[in-house]
Design a protein that fits this description.
Layout lengths: L7 H66 L2 H9 L2 H15 L3 E6 L4 E5 L11 H10 L2 E7 L2 E11 L3 E10 L2 H11 L2 E6 L6 E5 L7 H7 L4 E3 L2 E9 L8 E8 H52 L14 H28 L9 H18 L3 E8 L2 H8 L1 H21 L14 E5 L2 E7 L3 H16 L2 E3 L2 E3 L3 E8 L6 H18 L3 E3 L2 H22 L3 E7 L1 E2 L6 E11 L3 E3 L1 H11 L2 H21 L4 E6 L10 H12 L6 E6 H5 L2 H13 L3 E7 L5 H5 L6 E4 L1 H4 L6 H16 L3 E5 L4 H10 L3 E3 L9 H10 L1 H4 L13
Parallel strand pairs: 16-17, 20-22, 22-23, 23-24, 24-25, 25-26, 26-27
Antiparallel strand pairs: 1-2, 1-5, 3-4, 4-5, 6-7, 6-10, 8-9, 9-10, 11-13, 11-16, 12-13, 14-15, 18-20, 19-27, 20-21
Helix pairs in contact: 1-7, 2-3, 7-8, 10-11, 11-12, 13-14, 14-15, 16-17
Length: 798
Amino acid sequence: MRFGFRRLQWRIAAWTAMILLSVQIGGLFLFEHVGRSSALQEVKVQLDTGDRVLDRLLEQRSAQLAQAARVLAADFGFREAVLTGDADTAASALGNHGSRIGASLMLLTGLDGRALAAHPAGGDAFAQRLARFIADAQARGAATGFQVVGDSVFQLVVVPVMAPVPVAWVAIGFVVDEALVHDLKRVIGLDVSLVRGRELEAALVASTLPTDVDAAQLLADAGRGMLVGGFEYAGLVRDLDPLASERVFAVLQVSLERALEPWERLYREWSGLTVAATVAMLLASMWMGRTIASPVTRLAEFARRVRVGEYAAPPMVRREDEIGRLATAFALMTEAIASREARISELAYRDVLTGLPNRVQFVESLDRFVRSFGERGERLAVLTLDIDRFKLINDSLGHDLGDQVLQEVGRRLQHAGMRRRDLAQGLQDEANACARLGGDEFAVLVPGADAVAARVVAERIAALLEAPMNVQGQLVDVRASIGIALYPDHGNDAGELMRGADVAMYKAKQAHAGHAIYDPAHHGRNAARLSLLTELRQAVEGDELVLYYQPKHAFRSSAMLSVEALVRWVHPKRGFVPPMEFIPFAEQTGYIRAITLWVLERAVRQCAEWRRAGRAVHVGLNLSARDLLHPELPDQFRAMLEHHGCEARWITLEITESAVLDDPRKALATLERLHATGCQLSIDDYGTGYSSLSYLRQMPVQELKIDRSFVMNLTTRPGDELIVRSTIELAHSLGLVVTAEGVETEEILVRLGELGCDLAQGYFVSRPVDAAGLEAWMDHSPWARGDHPSGTEPTNCA
């Protein structure tokens, strides 16, 4: 049953039937409440009406009885008998007249209330009960009322015998019995019961009720309903004679069953209608639910198939209503979803630019080949290639033309597969053998190839790509670096083979070898470099780096000593790590910026400490090309100066000329802001760049440092001396101080002084030393004391 009601058609039928049944049941309760209330109201009206009719009947009956009594009292013969005291004649007249009017009691009393005559005999016992009637008759001319005598109740009428003043009283009594109450019922239309006495002493006199009832209970329950013979009655109590010594009550009753009979009939008919309507509505709602649920069920089943990727045509629902429109919407939705999934699948597995498979599909194909070839014990080669100098093509010719170059490369790779029919298995054996991995990187899958066959494929691909490409009228020469990884020699899954081929490709690019086969040692070096980056990060955070300072010799006296701060790394396990092993690597990974900030902070702090100790030291330190691309560097440098209390003029920041060429606009803007702090700027390694003179005038520098490659052979190569002399003269003409690096001999030092150089730096002057060693050098070195061995003018300042 629970499972059945999960179906839509049964739920529709059940809810419809429940709603209808609720309305019908509500109607039944309403009819019961309204019917009973209306019946009770109608009964109350009937009782009130019956009470008024009873009152009117009793008045008429009293008037008739009084009139009958007056007729007797006015009879001449009767009055004569009364006046003469003829009791027999009076008794005879009372009997005759009582017989004619059907009276139960005829009585003649004197003015003193004593009985004079009575019919039937013995009626004179009533005389003592007529005192209140006689008093009332004296006041109003006649008196009527009810009087209990023994076990009977009489309706009495008392009138005077006038001659012409009252000479006697005539009393006529009519017994109240079943005949009277039935006569009243016929006139009133209600059941009538007469009760004498009150509360527990009450006695039933006469009643039209079908069964005997308790008189006391009748009086007690008349106002709020009573049960008589298992039937409910509503009643009304009327006191017939409030002045009587023993009270007489008339109780009017109406059967509620009779009053409720029309409502009961309506209730039964409505109940039958409810049952019939519920059954009919249940059947109709089942049919309606079936007409709605059946197509909805088919559409739901169709939606379930769509969810699992089945896009068959939806079920036919030929309707013009909302269900039909829903089916049409399902059909359109399915077509749209299928189209979008096809497009998504194409985007997910196909490169949009070249139409080749992308990295995801290539890796899946490679996985599939590795599994199948591994089971058969066959070999496999993976080639990854990268276009050399492709960034130059984009920058020179534009990205649109660069995209067309990539498209041509893709076509040539596909063509290479079709031409390699001399191999046992070629690219044409697998639709996904060529792929674009991203950017200017491509991959080729060569099933069944060993190292020799893979090299042949790589050489042919290189030859195809080296043929000039005519793109929009532009002849473009393209070369590629190709890396080769072999299965199972270099890996057992797609990930290992792809990594191996990438490592080999970058090795070929570095060696300008065209192609290279993966060597596991390459991966070891890469892992070592990655480990080096992690350790270098820990070294900076753990303060493992150390600053060394190399003094500079000044050819002219000054009050300050110039030194260059050089970072050194003393590894806790590896020992001393040369700068050339971690500085270029840090520049490639971008971590050089963290090292630069560390060097800046330590050098500024040390310079300030020396100045506070009375040592006039001017510290120079190096910035990398990446440092100049960060606009927040000047603010960080200024904050360091303020924090340590160091003046900017005590610091020189050295930059290489090539650092400006990467992004001249940003680099020059950063240099201007650094110069605004008040520090000195110096061009380091001058002469090794490509565009020194074009930017030299724009750069706000105060010093130029000649690269060691020109200084070391100054005295042996005339060409180098010419370059150094020209550089010194050019710098002086621009107002720059010149520093020569790489001074290894006294001869070179003397010659630099002769050429007009300002400062000299190299091992002949001093090797780099730590802060304590520099302080000792300043205190004890002959260069610092002035008796240095070169014979040149001694100085300890820059």
